[in-house]
Write a structure and sequence with these properties.
There is one protein chain. By secondary structure, the protein is mainly alpha-helical. It has two domains: 78 residues, Orthogonal Bundle (DNA polymerase, domain 1); 159 residues, HAD superfamily/HAD-like (Rossmann fold, 3-Layer(aba) Sandwich). It is built from twelve helices and five strands. The strands form two sheets. A three-stranded parallel sheet has the order 3-4-5, with helices on one face. Helix 7 links the parallel strand 1 and strand 2. Helix 1 packs across helix 5 and helix 3 crosses helix 5. The relative contact order is 0.13.
Length: 247
């Protein structure tokens, strides 16, 4: 959901501006997919932002500062989240194809249970409902890149071996989560946070620019350890049929 991952991006940017720090888009997107408090902490540890914070507040950010930013972020995100819940192209068709083959669909997230109440309700209205989902609230706040949300899904589906699991995600944190869990990990390029473009923006790119940006995202996933990288969800079933010989 949320082609280009704009809901948290907007909220993170507004929060840092409220504290007198103008973040760059690369800084906002780099930790995407992590538990949101961890995301804020990761941004505050970035050299440029850390320097600006010290310049503004005369000391490095502390845990209480992270808490203050997170409280503001949570309020901002909850206020806009339902506006960013459109299902990405190919998702509904792919989920239907998986279920027809008896393959359950689980989900992990960087959102909290409270945020997911909004997301899951809107997703179902749009036709998507995973068979199970787990947030960091179910894993003692250890979100991505920790593997524990994947393990909770495996437990829910009574999966006995990681070799039978495929992790599909659109952030580097997703890939790291999958690799840490020991499962086959797939990065998706179009509509991803790593691409960082809305659907119309992506479609307006020239063929040459699409190729250039796609190559950059592909390399990010590969560097994170991705076992495979696909352009869109429409390519997932052919990949699984090829690699796992499902049919």
């Amino acid at each position: 959901m949320d082609y280009g991952c704009f809901a948290p991006v907007q909220a993170f940017a507004e929060v840092f501006r409220a504290f007198g720090i103008e973040p760059e888009m690369e800084e906002v997107r780099k930790p995407m997919g992590m538990l949101k408090r961890d995301h804020i902490k990761a941004m505050l540890e970035m050299p440029r932002i850390r320097g600006l914070w010290i310049e503004t507040y005369k000391k490095p950010a502390e845990e209480e500062d992270i808490d203050r930013l997170y409280r503001l972020f949570e309020g901002k995100l909850m206020g806009i989240l339902e506006n960013f819940t459109d299902v990405k192209p190919g998702v509904l068709e792919t989920v239907k194809a998986l279920r027809e083959k008896g393959i359950p669909v689980g989900s992990t997230t960087g959102y909290t249970d409270q945020m997911m109440e909004i997301v899951t309700q809107k997703a179902e209205e749009h036709g998507y409902k995973p068979d199970a989902w787990f947030s960091p609230d179910s894993t003692h706040k250890r979100g991505r890149p920790y593997p524990y949300m994947i393990y909770r899904n495996m437990e829910a589906f009574a999966v006995s071996c990681a070799a039978g699991v495929v992790k599909v995600g659109d952030t580097v944190s997703d890939i790291k989560e999958g690799k840490n869990a020991g499962v086959f990990s797939v990065g998706i390029i179009e509509g991803s946070s790593e691409m960082g473009l809305g659907r119309d923006e992506f479609e307006r790119l020239s063929a040459e620019e699409k190729k250039r940006r796609t190559a950059l995202v592909r390399e990010k996933y590969r560097s994170a350890g991705a076992d495979a990288v696909i352009g869109s969800m429409q390519e997932l079933m052919p990949l699984l049929e090829s690699v796992f010989l499902i049919g």
